[in-house]
């Protein structure tokens, strides 16, 4: 009995050590980025990036935000881009998922699985056709070029919402229809409230995905006018390769909103993942 307890305790201890090592490896780059961004260039040159800033300074952030090619415009462009894509993806994904789950029309299941199959196609494969289409339409290096390929819904979101919508009690929906509710009222008053956790999770996934989007904004835009925050961060590495405090300040600014978002909504994410697993 004691041997079994000792083995179990040893196994648990080894598991926690592995998880701790993985957590340290994952968090180390972010920690170095934040510490370096709060360090003065002189201290960084003397002590390196692994020392605590003494004292911490916001000089790099001030320089970055006040410079002509700073982060004010890229942040504004990225926020607008993510907001438009988010609203479009949630609205159209909810409508499409409801249609695939509860409406009957010819070829419904075939169309759904063909649409979901596009998840298997790497994004790099469709970059060139999308670029040619939008260039021919005269939309290259415009705001609409950033959002149009993504605003009409996401295969992943539609798949996830459809699976959740199919688990809803049909009695509730039939009762609302008997009371005279139309499709839009049914969606707004019943379907969306009952699936709020998974919708919140999709909101977070959409924000994180398109805030971190790099390839498409880099390809379809040129110059500082419609530069997103990821492209601006990449440009810092070539402009200020010797000033790592400035580069790390840009990196920290790019990842800070996402970290705050995940901290605030972590309970909703856990709840939605748990509910999806039970289904």
Could you characterize the architecture of this molecule?
With 279 residues, the protein is an all-alpha fold. It has two domains: 2-57; 69-278, MetI-like (MetI-like fold). It has 15 helices and no strands. The chain has helices at 2-37, 41-47, 59-66, 72-102, 108-117, 123-136, 143-147, 155-165, 170-178, 183-194, 196-211, 215-220, 229-239, 244-264, 266-278. The longest helix is centred in the first third of the chain and has 36 residues, at 2-37. The chain is globular. The chain starts with a helix and ends with a helix. The mean pLDDT is 83.
Mean pLDDT: 83
The helix content, as a percent range, equals over 70%
The total count of strands amounts to 0
- Could you describe the largest sheet, including whether it forms a barrel? none
Give the tally of structural domains.
2
Structural class: mainly alpha
Could you tell me the CATH topology label of the largest domain: MetI-like fold
Measure the end-to-end span.
38 Å
Low-confidence stretches: none
At the first level of CATH, the class of the largest domain is Mainly Alpha
Oligomerization: single chain
- The percent range for strand residues is under 5%
Could you give the order of the helices and strands? HHHHHHHHHHHHHHH
Rg (CA only): 24 Å
Give me the number of helical elements.
Answer: 15
- Based on the coordinates given, report the CATH architecture of the largest domain: Orthogonal Bundle
Fourth CATH level, the homologous superfamily of the largest domain: MetI-like
Shape: globular
Subcellular location: Cell membrane
Organism: Brachybacterium rhamnosum
Main location: membrane
Protein name: Carbohydrate ABC transporter permease
